[in-house]
Design a protein that fits this description.
Largest sheet: 4 strands, parallel
Number of strands: 4
Number of helices: 6
Shape: globular
Helix content: 25-40%
Structural class: alpha/beta
Distance between the termini: 53 Å
């Protein structure tokens, strides 16, 4: 980020989208693996946001526009066995988002998160019909579904959307599922 500040003077939009996961049974995952996932998924959101805030406070003329978008996950509220580290990291992003929004308000930076559900980023054509029809939207998500929300949140007029988490999952988190 320092190099960007040197070359461009400032950053208007920051999208935090780092993420790794290891789905391992709770009794098998090491503390080191748990820490590693938090270190990759959660820590950079704090570091980059802090760095931008420090930079913005030093500006002689305030920048009246700023956006931070943190990529969370529906896993912050839904889990399956062995997902403790990933769920904890995404839950941290969810909470950090609203805390950052309050802290960065005086710097004219809105902070929101997006929680994608199933987003298929390769071999979309290999998905099965059942993969698609289980979603109320009748399809699995694509990366451009998330990108469109990022563009929307970055529009100048959307500065009243702040401290929010927006779920983009084709309706899956709202679907009641019963086994018959």
């Amino acid at each position: 980020m320092s190099k960007i500040f040197e070359e461009w003077g400032d950053i208007d939009i920051l999208i935090n989208n780092a993420g790794v996961s290891i789905f391992t049974p709770l009794t098998d995952i090491s503390v080191e693996d748990f820490d590693s996932i938090l270190s990759v998924n959660l820590r950079p959101v704090f570091i980059t946001s802090r760095f931008l805030a420090i930079h913005r406070k030093k500006l002689l003329e305030p920048n009246l526009y700023g956006r931070i978008i943190n990529i969370c996950s529906t896993r912050y509220l839904m889990s399956e066995p062995g997902s403790e580290a990933y769920a904890a990291s995404k839950g941290g992003i969810y909470s950090l988002t609203h805390a950052l929004a309050v802290s960065l308000a005086d710097l004219h930076i809105t902070v929101n998160s997006i929680s994608p559900g199933w987003i298929q980023n390769s071999k979309y054509e290999c998905l099965r019909l059942v993969d698609h029809v289980q979603h109320p939207s009748k399809r699995v998500g694509k990366p451009e579904d998330i990108a469109r929300m990022c563009v929307f949140l970055c529009q100048l007029e959307n500065d009243f959307i702040n401290a929010e988490n927006i779920t983009i999952d084709g309706g899956m988190t709202k679907k009641m599922i019963y086994e018959e």
